[in-house]
Amino acid sequence: MSFSEAVLSPWLMALCALVSLLLYGLALAQRPWRALLADSALQHRWLAATVAVLLMWQLRAQAVDWLSLHLMFTALLTLVFKAPLALTSILIVNLAAVVTGRVAWPLLGVNLLVTGVVPALVMVLIWRLVDRRLPDNLMVFLFICGFFGAALSSLAAGLAAVGLMALGASDAHALYQAMEYARFLPLLMPSEAFITGMLMAILLVYHPSWVATFNDHRYIDTK
Description:
Layout: E1 2-3, H1 10-28, H2 33-38, H3 40-56, E2 61-64, E3 67-69, H4 74-81, H5 83-99, H6 108-133, H7 138-168, H8 172-182, H9 185-206, H10 216-221
């Protein structure tokens, strides 16, 4: 989901842009391009994934004038490429939406926060929990990260969008629509969880080395 029209107060859009800039700066400070430059196969996979997400974002439902509903794939990108490269992909996709005129440019920071930072942060926290606290089991990784993690990431993004509307909506009717939309969030989570989990299952079976957050030696070779 992403904002399509400026229904937030200017001060809130400016604040979101500042927060997004700060967090994206921290992500880019990890120098994710070093891994890309060192591995041409990774370059191809990352570019293909970014283009695929860009195309999938075109399949959207315009629930109301100011809000577009679509699959984000941020959780999947975070699991496969880790957060810095995942956030870079989401940045490119959002920039494409701005350049093509589908989203107003003042909303770039808001959408980066909702579709990028928040779901990626939730996914990283869940992955860290699985990596450090739970048994080294393939099914645990797949279901907790791939399915449950994607669902929670989608929920967090939706709650972030609703929270921003509650904090600084410039239109009372838009705020009412946001509150109504919040009631349908549990219905939107399964689609993101199913597709993310399904694609993760395919990758873990055929190409586990492609998943940057998955240690195939730890989860497969030692069993």
